[in-house]
Amino acid sequence: MEYRRLGRSGVKVSEISLGSWLTYGGSVAEERARACIHRAYELGINFFDTANVYMRGVAEEIVGRALKGFARDSYFLATKVYFPMGEGPNDRGLSRKHITEQCHASLKRLGVDYVDLYQCHRYDEGTPIEETLRALEDLVRQGKVLYVGVSEWTADQIADALRLAKEMNLDRIVSNQPRYNMIQRHIEAEIIPLCEREGVGQVVFSPLAQGVLTGKYRPEEVPERGTRAADPESNRFMQQLMNEEVLSAVDRLRPLASDAGLSISQFALAWILRQENVSSAIIGASRPEQVEDNAKAAGVRLSADVVSEIDGILEDVIASS
């Protein structure tokens, strides 16, 4: 496993990290989730990502139990806050009340005294950003949170938060968690350039485009039973990718991946890791074998010619994504 600094901070995280969105506590039973997490740890993955909203806290509980046997200082644990966790008017968002209460609830579910990275899961238009930043600063000062990050914020929102943190002498954002893969590249225009200047690292989710970039889905073939695309619940996140044009383009990547001695998944992850601003790529896994395959992408470097060939193959589907 290779490691990178999280943005401009001093902490190092594994290039490949393991997440729990749409998996642990849901479609993947706890015993198998534990096997995946333990295998990841054995392979040198030290970054584990979850969120309070994933299965309304169940994912945090499963991740916490799976990591319980490992020394706390040997892994980097991240969770998030923003989405509704109840029916009350204050059970959502980034108010001081919700952030504080949900941080305490997450710590309890995870079974730890602190989280390494606490992320604002989305931007809250209804709460002054100064309130959000001060609440996060308090948690840092209390030792319950070590680093602060955001997820799916725009470049302007990230820039405003960084400016205010500097003006108010508050702890600054060290990471952003956006969707990013070969097909969905929206962060390249504004977010990556800003974050490179400001020392904010990308911790990207959906690096395999919900499984489309694993090669398991083929043009003109019905998704196999048990796959994410065959599940009505998780399929809603990948509908724009499950079309003949995208699947045919991905199919044309096979020879390039083969020539590089990589699986398509490894090839797609290596493409992401070509970006120096990317600190880690978060994979999802339902079996330990998937973790093993994806972890092999760490340290792989694609040549400029190969990257150019990828762009040529995917040109039309990138434009329509």
Task: Write the topology of this structure.
Blueprint: E1 3-5, E2 12-14, E3 16-19, H1 30-42, E4 47-49, H2 58-67, E5 76-81, H3 96-110, E6 115-120, H4 129-141, E7 145-151, H5 155-168, E8 173-177, H6 191-198, E9 201-204, H7 232-235, H8 244-251, H9 254-259, H10 264-273, E10 278-283, H11 288-295, H12 304-319
What's the alpha carbon Rg, rounded to whole Å?
A: 19 Å
Name of the CATH architecture: Alpha-Beta Barrel
Question: What value does the average pLDDT take?
Answer: 92
- The arrangement of helices and strands along the chain is EEEHEHEHEHEHEHEHHHHEHH
- The helix tally amounts to 12
Low-pLDDT sequence parts: none
CATH H-tier superfamily:
NADP-dependent oxidoreductase domain
CATH class: Alpha Beta
Strand content: 5-15%
Q: Which class of secondary structure composition applies to the elements?
A: alpha/beta
Tell me what you see in this structure.
The protein has 321 residues and is of the alpha/beta class. It has a single domain (3-216, 277-300), classed as Alpha-Beta Barrel (TIM Barrel), CATH 3.20.20.100. The chain has 12 helices and 10 strands. It has helices at residues 30-42, 58-67, 96-110, 129-141, 155-168, 191-198, 232-235, 244-251, 254-259, 264-273, 288-295, 304-319; strands at residues 3-5, 12-14, 16-19, 47-49, 76-81, 115-120, 145-151, 173-177, 201-204, 278-283. The strands form 2 sheets. The protein has an 8-stranded parallel β-barrel with strand order 3-4-5-6-7-8-9-10, surrounded by 6 helices. A two-stranded antiparallel ribbon has the order 1-2. Helix 5 (155-168) links the parallel strand 7 (145-151) and strand 8. Helix 3 (96-110) runs parallel beside helix 4 and helix 5 (155-168) runs parallel beside helix 6 (191-198). It is globular and about 50 Å long.
